[in-house]
Specification:
The complex is a heterotrimer.
Chain A lengths: L6 E11 L4 E8 L12 E9 L2 E8 L10 E6 L7 H8 L5 E5 L2 E2 L9 E7 L4 H13 L3 E7 L8 H8 L3 E5 L8 H6 L5 E6 L2 H13 L7 E4 L10 E5 L4 E5 L5 H7 L18 E11 L7 H6 L2 E2 L5 E9 L2
Parallel strand pairs in A: 8-9, 8-11, 9-10, 11-12, 13-17
Antiparallel strand pairs in A: 1-2, 1-6, 2-5, 3-4, 3-6, 3-7, 13-14, 15-16, 15-17
Chain B lengths: L19 H5 L17 E2 L19 H14 L4 E3 L4 H18 L4 E6 L2 E6 L4 E6 L10 H6 L5 E8 L2 E8 L8 H4 L4 H4 L11 H10 L7 E10 L10 H4 L11 H4 E12 L6 E11 H4 L3 H13 L2 H6 L6 H9 L15
Antiparallel strand pairs in B: 1-8, 2-7, 3-4, 4-5, 6-7, 6-10, 8-9, 9-10
Helix pairs in contact in B: 11-13
Chain C lengths: L22 E6 L2 H11 L8 E6 L7 H5 L5 E4 L3 H13 L6 E6 L1 H13 L8 E4 L5 E5 L5 E5 L1 E2 L1 E2 L6 E9 L4 E6 L12 E2 L3
Parallel strand pairs in C: 1-2, 1-4, 2-3, 4-5, 6-11
Antiparallel strand pairs in C: 6-7, 8-12, 9-10, 10-11
Helix pairs in contact in C: 3-4
Classes of the chains: A alpha/beta, B alpha+beta, C alpha/beta.
Chain lengths: 321, 346, 198
């Protein structure tokens, strides 16, 4: 049975440039009804009709879960990516009709936590915008440490400082300010949960230090959507549907499968949720695994692939799709 | 017009009965002449008018009597309703879900008005008219989960989702088929299912968990489960097993039709929006053998299912002591003719 | 131990040194041997910031071996109940990174884990090792009373007197196995009593 999400017909109600790299988009329901309630950390998948191509990119909801008149996302422009963020920045205007998925939360707060310690890097701040709003409304105990390159690129730093004052600490790369991670992690009361969202280097650093300092893995939460990487085109045979497809340079394997009219289930399109996991029937070549779902062992043995983010180089690949 | 609610009891003099219309809408759980565990989960979507799936949260003629029975159970044993401290938000999620579904499905009986966080809830069958602030526990006479589940048929388990598992961290359980919320609260999916025989070995729970953790908002799922109960007793809890257990020894060929009940659970699974938890309503339907065999197909099929049930399952479901008497009684209604596929009566 | 058990039956491991600086041990009787076995595998200085809470039981034969590990803090008490206020205080003041090691009887492991859960520690991050008696703590599902040190199957509830089937179904929250009336359907059926949890 498919476990995909329901779709929402929305209209872009506002487009607000936040700084030189980040723009915020507001969506309302076309029928004027309230949007579904969501929980802090949830994302939606935004469908972009870009000429012949349909792009499906996940973005964290950053508004307060208490206000469902509109959804807001913030998109950082990536000039060397596959074009989703450029499409959003260049083509999406107020009044445009779009389709987004129901919210899905793969970066949920652990509500048992005595304290929520949040570490954000750059655009990784967006899920924390919603989570801090949710916690603040319930009187939850949280502390946010936010690193950005410069003050002007500190997206929403001023808003957060204004709302939560001393519960927010800012660190600017250009002023050589660094999180004193070991000290921070060693001074947290029992029952604290740690959340990190940002560049993969930051996530790796925080997870490693937390493990070395004795934090149990259940208390360390991270969200890292891998964006699908461009790469050399390759051909794939879909054994179940009897089709042969070519995956373009700027296309993900999942997008190419969908373009051929085959619809594997998906939720995150970022190598995290495991929904689109696909069995490999035969291959002659090398996998480029970019997901966070399969184990290292599964990556090595070549029997499974996550088509949302992973690619292939070689002579032939046959998938059970 | 609305539902005519029956005045009846589920204890002492056991006056519970189904009206003829309710017999026809009974969710008979066997689609073929045998039964074994399967991951029988399907999307919880609306079904035909006049079936128990006419609304996603079903209210029927037993509503008022079941709510009275629940109040009696809770007065006797408040531990049947528990919520670990982190589950209050999920309780509000459940309150919203049940109020909305009941108000949409049965506008003549329930009305919900919302103005921001100022809510007013009218429950006519139970004579309730409360105004409260959504999210503020001090404005309700009970916690949100207890408040709304004292007004909703079926048991409710609220599951917290974390670390790739589901944790039974809150519930209202007064009509259970022999499991204890007080004992199981805080357990994960595998732990609270631990006593179920055979299914672990078949990998049923591993697959079911994978499915359930991926349930999406707005896309609930459901499955049917079943057991049998002697006398139309809703509260067959382990807590009171020493009180109802002796009933099992009272089944005779003369009283099978009145005493033995098929008990079907319509279990549904819903993602909760604020807490990201899952609520698992377990709606219990009872039908006595005399009522069930008014549908000849059901009589023939139930005979074959009970006769051929593996002993471990019969034992787990508590049938052993009266199984032979029941099978003999049902066999007289089974002429061996084929049964049509599917659940419904012919 | 029963040959075939169920998933809710706790599974105990072998204590092993975990990363981090702060280590808290709670043990009774032969549980001390699990700690000394761990010490043999531990890096130098492992006990420099460790705290051992020990309930020796009838004799004090393992006390010297534990003291020889030179933990930062060592406590011995006559019963788990007497050690509990100290354990709760220690947990209340602890920081993330603290590791908890529980060793000894099931009753000790279960009750110390119960205190740890209440303090916000996740059960999966606690190291446990079973040593010594298999006697069980039982919750009577009917009257909710706890009966300690149950060694027989069936067992009599020390509160309401019902004859209980001792199940493998275990609750971490209650730190107890479940006891369910064994002859509820016919009280005249009295199965033989066997001593099986030694």
């Amino acid at each position: 049975m498919s476990t995909g999400t329901t779709k929402l017909d929305v209209v872009v109600s506002d487009v607000v440039p936040v700084n030189e790299l980040v723009t915020r988009f507001h969506f309302r329901r076309r029928d004027g009804q309230l949007l579904p309630t969501f929980s802090g950390g949830a994302h939606v998948v935004v469908e972009m009709r870009d000429g012949e191509r349909t792009r499906l990119n996940p973005y964290s909801l950053m508004g307060s879960p208490l206000d469902t008149r509109e959804y807001t996302i913030s998109v950082r422009r990536d000039d060397v990516g596959r074009g989703g963020s450029l499409f959003m920045h260049r083509h999406v205007r107020p009044g445009m009709e779009m389709v987004i998925s129901y919210p899905v939360n793969l970066f949920s707060l652990d509500l048992r936590a005595r304290k929520h310690l949040m570490l954000a890097g750059g655009i990784g701040i967006t899920p924390f915008m919603a989570q801090t709003a949710q916690l603040a409304a319930e009187g939850g105990n949280f502390e946010l440490h936010y690193t950005c390159r410069t003050a002007s690129l500190g997206t929403y730093a001023d808003v957060l400082k204004d709302r939560y004052d001393r519960r927010v600490r800012l660190y600017h790369d250009d002023r050589d300010e660094r999180i004193e991670l070991d000290r921070l992690l060693s001074s947290q009361p029992l029952g604290t949960h740690l959340y990190v969202c940002g560049p993969s280097g930051m996530i790796g650093w925080v997870r490693d230090r937390a493990a070395a300092l004795g934090w149990p893995t259940e208390t360390v939460h991270f969200e890292h959507f891998a964006a699908p990487q461009p790469g050399a085109p390759f051909d794939v045979t879909l054994a179940v549907s009897g089709k042969t497809i070519r995956v373009g340079e700027q296309q993900s394997l999942l997008e190419a499968i969908e373009a051929a009219g085959v619809d594997p289930p998906y939720l995150c399109r970022g190598g995290v949720c495991g929904q689109c996991e696909t069995n490999v029937i035969a291959h002659d070549g090398k996998f480029i695994h970019n997901d966070h779902w399969l184990s290292e062992e599964e990556h090595r043995c070549g029997k499974k692939i996550m088509p949302c983010v992973s690619r292939f180089e070689g002579r032939s690949l046959v998938l059970e799709r | 017009m609305g539902i005519t609610f029956r005045k009846e009891t589920f204890r002492d003099d056991f006056t519970f009965k189904n009206s003829p219309e309710h017999i026809r809408r009974f969710p008979f759980p066997f689609h073929e002449d045998s039964y074994m565990y399967a991951v029988n989960i399907e999307p919880h979507v609306l079904g035909p008018k006049g079936s128990v799936l006419e609304n996603l949260i079903d209210v029927d003629e037993h509503y008022v009597a079941e709510m009275q029975d629940r109040a009696l159970v809770l007065a006797e044993d408040p531990l049947r309703c528990q919520s670990l401290p982190h589950m209050t938000l999920a309780g509000w999620d459940l309150l919203e879900l049940l109020m909305e579904q009941q108000a949409v499905g049965y506008p003549e009986h329930f009305t919900l008005s919302r103005d921001g966080d100022k809510w007013r809830w009218i429950n006519r069958p139970l004579g309730i008219d409360d105004s409260f602030t959504f999210g503020d526990v001090s404005t309700l006479p009970y916690g949100p989960m207890e408040y709304i589940t004292r007004q909703s048929q079926g048991d409710f388990c609220i599951l917290d989702q974390r670390d790739g598992n589901l944790w039974m961290d809150a519930g209202m359980v007064t009509t259970q088929a022999d499991w204890s919320l007080d004992f199981d609260i805080g357990m994960n999916f595998f732990e609270w299912h631990a006593p179920v025989p055979l299914a672990h070995e078949k990998g049923i729970f591993t697959r079911a968990l994978k499915f359930l953790t991926n349930i999406q908002q707005g896309k609930p799922a459901r499955r049917l489960n079943w057991t049998m109960t002697i006398n139309p007793r809703l509260d067959t809890s382990p807590e009171n097993y020493h009180k109802w257990g002796p009933d099992r020894a009272t089944v005779t060929p003369e009283n099978v039709g009145d005493k033995v009940h098929l008990r079907v659970e319509l279990q549904s699974f819903w993602r909760l929006p604020r807490s990201n938890g899952i609520v698992f309503p377990i709606r219990c339907y009872l039908i006595k053998m005399d009522e069930l065999v008014t549908q000849p197909k059901w009589a023939r099929r139930l005979h074959r299912v009970i006769r051929d049930l593996p002993d471990e399952l019969a034992n787990y479901k508590g049938l052993t002591r009266y199984r032979r008497t029941l099978v003999e009684w049902l066999s007289k209604l089974d002429d061996g003719s084929p049964t049509s596929p599917g659940f419904g009566p012919d | 131990m029963a040959a075939k058990s169920i998933i809710s039956r706790p599974v105990y491991g072998t204590l092993s040194p975990q990363p981090g600086k702060h280590h808290l041990f709670v043990a009774d009787a032969e549980g001390a041997l699990a700690i000394t076995d761990l010490a043999a595998k531990a890096p130098d200085g492992f006990f420099a910031d460790a705290h051992i809470i020990f309930i020796p039981g009838n004799d004090s034969k393992h006390v010297a071996a534990l003291e020889a590990l030179k933990p930062a803090q060592f406590y011995q008490g006559p019963s788990f109940a007497s050690a509990l206020p100290r354990l709760k205080q220690t947990l209340a003041n602890a920081h993330m990174g603290l590791h908890l090691y529980l060793a000894g009887t099931e009753g000790l492991i279960g009750q110390a884990m119960q205190a740890a859960l209440e303090a916000g520690i996740d059960h999966t991050s606690i190291q446990t090792e079973h040593r010594g008696s298999l006697a069980r703590r039982i919750q009577c599902v009917h009257c909710k009373g706890i009966t300690e040190n149950v060694t027989t199957q069936p067992a009599t509830c020390s509160h309401c007197g019902l004859l209980l089937l001792v199940r493998d179904h275990y609750s971490r929250r209650l730190a107890a196995f479940q006891g369910v009336c064994i002859n509820a359907e016919d009280r005249s059926e009295i199965p033989p009593t066997e001593e099986i949890f030694r």
